[in-house]
Design brief:
The protein has 118 residues and is mainly β. Helices cover 0% and strands 50% of the residues. It is built from no helices and ten strands. The strands form two sheets. A six-stranded mixed β-sheet has the order 2-10-9-4-5-6, with no helix packed on it. It has a four-stranded antiparallel β-sheet with strand order 1-3-8-7, with no helix packed on it.
């Protein structure tokens, strides 16, 4: 079953930090790029960051230097988790954050809500 589960969102003040997690329990990411997207109210979903299989990374300009994408493998559970560490959060980072493979190759999950208050 194709399944990605995002978590880690919440309400933080401007300047705060959050660490988002996306657990792949269905071997969805194997050999593919992993990515975080976000959708702010009234706006289209946008790519935020991508992690290539060779561990090279991409960030949109507005999050460079503040966000970090990385992955960890749990050999016991046989799962891969991709993280998005978000520092120095700004109100404009408020959105629902989603993970996916590539540019959105599989059905979207529920996402995790991030709200940054000013």
């Amino acid at each position: 079953q194709v399944r990605l589960v995002e978590s880690g969102g919440g309400l933080v003040q401007s300047g705060g930090s959050l660490n988002l997690s996306c657990v792949d329990s269905g071997k969805i990411f194997g050999g593919y790029p992993m990515a975080w997207f976000r959708q702010a109210p009234g706006r289209e979903r946008e790519l935020v960051s991508m992690l290539a299989p060779n561990n090279s990374t991409y960030y949109i300009d507005s999050v460079k230097g503040r966000f970090t994408i990385f992955k960890r493998k749990d050999v016991v559970k046989n799962t891969v988790t991709v993280y998005l560490t978000m520092n120095a959060l700004k109100p404009e980072d408020t959105a629902v954050y989603y993970c996916n493979r590539g540019y959105g190759e599989i059905p979207w999950g529920q996402g995790t809500q991030v709200v940054v208050s000013s």
